[in-house]
Amino acid sequence: MKKYILAVAISLFTMSLFAQDNVLTEQETRDGWKLLWDGKTTEGWKGARISTFPSKGWVIENGILKVLKSGGGESTNGGDIVTTRKYKNFILKVDFKITEGANSGIKYFVNPDLNKGEGSAIGCEFQVLDDEKHPDAKLGVKGNRTLGSLYDLIPASADKPFIKNGFNTATVVVIDNKVQHWLNGVKIVEYERNNQMWNALVAYSKYANWPNFGNAPEGNILLQDHGDEVWFKNVKIKELK
């Protein structure tokens, strides 16, 4: 399985360099991949706290889904957007581009109903961040808020490959309780949830007071509005048995 995941992650990154944006290749279609975003409409997505897609804060331009700059607040403008259905075991691929000093995130195992107060919807987060220019990179513990990290829990590898002025490919692999983060074809985070070690890790994080954090069998996928402009495209998923 590990060799299979490695081959998938590398091939996905390689294909993203040459493939047409927001379109599945014939091979991807045969392999069971599906577009989570079609590149043109808001179909399949809605606001995390509303039943429709946000009327402000997000735009679609030339095949790119952009969350707009609005002062750096967490989910204070258009708000986070989530998939209209939940996912359990999967490989998720998202191409993203960070503008200078930007903060955002790609979340999974999200429960949009959990947080009724201020801030973002609650779920495990693949951190999207300008490590050089955003102060959050220096917060947390041992770099666990830097780009690609499992936010506030597990830091990404220090030698992670990052394309500063272009699109990067984030990949999240979920097989039951085993999870991996990949960046541009390189594994940068690996962990297992639903065990004593995981629960202890959560207990010393900002998620300590959220019940059963990260242990749900399934959840929505989320793109975060953190008040900074970030670009997304080629949002794809392959569900695993």
From TrEMBL:
<feature type="signal peptide">
    <location>
        <begin position="1"/>
        <end position="19"/>
    </location>
</feature>
<dbReference type="Pfam" id="PF06439">
    <property type="entry name" value="3keto-disac_hyd"/>
</dbReference>
<feature type="domain" description="3-keto-alpha-glucoside-1,2-lyase/3-keto-2-hydroxy-glucal hydratase">
    <location>
        <begin position="32"/>
        <end position="238"/>
    </location>
</feature>
<keyword id="KW-0732">Signal</keyword>
<dbReference type="GO" id="GO:0016787">
    <property type="term" value="F:hydrolase activity"/>
</dbReference>
<protein>
    <recommendedName>
        <fullName>3-keto-alpha-glucoside-1,2-lyase/3-keto-2-hydroxy-glucal hydratase domain-containing protein</fullName>
    </recommendedName>
</protein>
<dbReference type="InterPro" id="IPR010496">
    <property type="entry name" value="AL/BT2_dom"/>
</dbReference>
